[in-house]
């Protein structure tokens, strides 16, 4: 990752549901290091008068981090969000939001007491009107200024530690592009030095929970600007696809007739401008991404480096990935072997689960295959295919959670790369979300996937899979135990028969004692069995 990406991070360091809340982008909030805006419903900070929440000190995790980032106090994202704020709204019950004015994911209603479950669907299963509505919503987000959030155009230091706020408006879609960039930028070390081996959203355990929150927040912002409370992100099931079947003017934009790197002028996505893609330039200037337009979306699917990504992922590769029992392993970064997360992310071979960073599998394969804006980490969310792709990646994560049913403790509590421990707050979200809070089934967060809503029998078979897998791994021990058990049974049976034969010649005075002994042996035999 580039220094530009790091600069971008510094720009965005104030808290918000999706970057910096407008209500906290001022000198007073920055100098007080407090982001506790009033809730419109009663005018009190965090809606405290209505028992929705209160302004409280942020409790940071003290768990040790991995060795990947050997610095301290040089990056605004360290111990997020304490560089900018050490007090934010802590919401009660099912309330959430930077001012406790919204509901937690999965709840709705005036008092956030109504459970909801929305379904994400395959984009090719949408009706023409549903598909056209989705595309219109994307375009609306690209052309609607965010009412609640702004982005920073300078680092905390450049803001004179808060006394000189530097912010600007941004549209709803680009807000999320910037957020993705901010989390994955490089660390600026001063002069022309940068540290590239850092990412708060990729290459570590938080990759899947982080993008899960990102999509949920994106979904909610679309619901807010459209008034369509039932909107959900569709997904593209790319397993075994021979080419980019969504790359048509009917869907996400076809190929330009004369320039294969551009989108067809028949698609309104061809007029979109990208932001935060010139990371090396920002690094060299020690500047931050300020969301200035940087040209059209680039995409040339299939004309990528075939030695790195020869094709799109297969169903067999996805199934192998799902069979992995460990969520994380070893160094818990892109070098991890037999890690479900690392294999799904694409840094491990999807046929062996051995780390191989010279290849790009599964999630990474899609990004490389698109051969354009999608292929650069910091700016990848500029291409609207990003949300379709990550919705399907999230569904694979969901399948793994349902199949293996891990306890929360499976998610690493310590020694993960910076920002990725279980109790770390995700960069750069405010209200604050911990990584471990989204290591749970999607239905608990209010959504499901159409293709995962299977009949009861299939669900039962899915439930049995992990137990059958464990049985397969220990079958030799089971057979051995059965053989030994058979031998013991035969010996005991012979012993009991011998005792009975001996009893027939015993006096009547001791018969009751023999009966008690026989009953006791029978009970012990049953217990042993």
UniProtKB/TrEMBL annotation:
Residues 202-219, 383-394 form the Tyrosinase copper-binding domain. It is an enzyme of class 1 (oxidoreductase). One of its GO terms (molecular function) is metal ion binding. GO terms for biological process: melanin biosynthetic process; pigmentation. Gene3D superfamilies: Di-copper center containing domain from catechol oxidase. It is found in: Melanosome membrane. Residues 1-18 form the signal peptide. Its EC number is 1.14.18.1. The chain crosses the membrane at residues 474-498. It is a single-pass type I membrane protein. InterPro entries: Di-copper_centre_dom_sf, Tyrosinase/Hemocyanin, Tyrosinase_Cu-bd. Keywords: Copper, Glycoprotein, Melanin biosynthesis, Membrane, Metal-binding, Monooxygenase, Oxidoreductase, Signal, Transmembrane, Transmembrane helix. Its cofactor is Cu(2+). One of its GO terms (cellular component) is melanosome membrane. Belongs to the tyrosinase family. This is Tyrosinase. It comes from Eudyptula minor (Little blue penguin). The lineage of its organism: Eukaryota, Metazoa, Chordata, Craniata, Vertebrata.
